[in-house]
Write a structure and sequence with these properties.
Blueprint lengths: L1 H52 L1 H4 L2 H29 L4 H34 L4 H4 L2 H29 L12 H4 L2 H34 L5 H37 L2 H29 L2 H11 L14
Helix pairs in contact: 1-3, 1-10, 1-11, 3-4, 3-6, 3-10, 4-6, 4-8, 4-9, 8-9, 9-10
C-alpha cells in the first residue's frame, strides 16, 4: 500500500514538473514574440510619425505608399500577437476568430499588392518623368490604396459571411484560431489560388518595371543617379515580395510538419519557423526600406533620438 502511494506521488510530481516546464517554455516563446513584435511596432510608429512630420512626405506618392506599408505591417504584427495571446488565454469562438482572421489575412494579401503599386510609381517616375506629377498624384495614390484593401478584404469577408450563414456552430464553437481550423478545404484552396494569382501579377509588374528602369538607366540621356536608385529600389521590392511569399508557403510547410512530427516537436518547430519566416521579415523589411532613403533617414534618426538634437534636419528630395 505504501509503495503504491509513493509511486502515485512520484507520478503526480513528474506530471507537475512536466506541466510547469511546458508553461515555462510557452511563456519564453510568448516573451520572445512580444519583445520582437513591440520593438518593431515602436520603430514603425516612429517612422510613420516621421512621414507625417513633413509636408513633402505627406504629399509624395512613394512616401504615402511607404506609410501605408508601415501601417499594414504593424496591424498584421499586432493581430498575430493577439492570436498568440488568445491561444494562451482561452480559445475564441469561430465568429471572433474569423473577425481577427479578416485582419491578418487581408493585411497579408495587401503587402505584395502594395509593393506592386510602389513599383509602378517608380516605373512612372523614371520612364515618364515629365508626366510623373500628372499620373502619380496623391489622390490616385489613395484610390490605389483603397483598391488594395478591397482586393485584400474580399476573400476573408466572403469566408466570414459564408461561415455565419452555413455553419450552425459559427457563433458558439470555440476553436484554436488559425486557417487550418477555421476554413474548409475548398476555402483554403481558393485562398491559395487567389493569392497565387496576386503574387504572379505583382511579380510580373515588378519585373516589367525593373527591366524598363534598367533600359532607361543605360541610355545616355537619362538621369543616371535617379535611375540607379530606382533600379536598386525595385530590386529591394522583389526581395520583399519573396519574403511576403513565405506567408503563402507557411501553411503548406506547417501542414506537412503536422503530419510528420510529434505534437511537442511540431509546436517548437512551428514557433521557430513562424519567428524566422513570418515575423522577422515583416519587421525588418520596412525598416531596411526606410533607412536606405536619405531624405527619410535623417529625420527618422532625429525623432528616434527623441528630438534631442537642437538642429532639426532638413529634407533634400532627389
Amino acid at each position: 500500500m505504501a509503495l503504491t502511494l509513493n509511486s502515485t506521488k512520484e507520478e503526480l510530481l513528474q506530471q507537475l514538473i512536466l506541466h510547469h516546464s511546458a508553461i515555462a517554455r510557452s511563456l519564453s516563446k510568448f516573451s520572445v514574440m512580444m519583445i520582437v513584435s513591440f520593438v518593431f511596432i515602436y520603430i514603425n510608429s516612429i517612422m510613420f510619425f516621421t512621414l507625417l512630420s513633413k509636408p513633402v512626405f505627406r504629399d509624395t506618392p512613394r512616401y504615402v505608399l511607404f506609410a501605408h506599408m508601415l501601417c499594414n505591417d504593424s496591424i498584421m504584427i499586432l493581430f498575430i500577437f493577439l492570436i498568440a495571446i488568445l491561444s494562451y488565454v482561452h480559445r475564441p469562438t469561430k465568429a471572433m476568430c474569423s473577425l481577427i482572421m479578416i485582419v491578418t489575412t487581408s493585411t497579408a494579401t495587401n503587402a505584395p499588392l502594395n509593393l506592386g503599386v510602389m513599383s509602378l510609381e517608380r516605373y512612372i517616375a523614371i520612364c515618364f518623368p515629365l508626366h510623373h506629377r500628372e499620373l502619380a498624384t496623391t489622390k490616385r495614390t489613395y484610390v490605389a490604396m483603397a483598391a488594395i484593401w478591397f482586393f485584400g478584404l474580399v476573400n476573408p469577408v466572403t469566408d466570414w459571411v459564408y461561415g455565419s450563414i452555413f455553419d450552425p456552430d459559427f457563433f458558439f464553437e470555440r476553436v484554436e484560431c488559425g486557417q487550418e481550423t477555421m476554413f474548409r478545404t475548398w476555402q483554403a484552396l481558393f485562398y491559395q489560388a487567389l493569392n497565387g494569382l496576386y503574387y504572379v501579377t505583382v511579380t510580373l509588374v515588378i519585373l516589367y518595371s525593373y527591366i524598363n528602369v534598367v533600359l532607361v538607366a543605360r541610355s545616355v540621356s537619362s538621369d543616371q543617379k535617379s535611375a540607379g536608385k530606382a533600379h536598386r529600389t525595385l530590386l529591394l521590392h522583389f526581395i520583399q515580395l519573396l519574403l511576403c511569399l513565405n506567408t503563402l508557403l507557411y501553411g503548406h510547410i506547417i501542414g506537412f510538419m503536422a503530419v510528420m512530427l510529434s505534437y511537442e516537436v511540431f509546436y517548437n518547430v512551428r514557433f521557430t519557423i513562424y519567428l524566422l519566416v513570418i515575423l522577422l521579415p515583416r519587421c525588418l523589411s520596412p525598416v531596411i526600406y526606410g533607412l536606405r532613403d536619405e531624405a527619410l533617414r535623417c529625420v527618422f534618426i532625429y525623432y528616434f533620438k527623441c528630438a534631442l538634437s537642437k538642429v532639426k534636419p532638413s529634407v533634400n528630395m532627389h
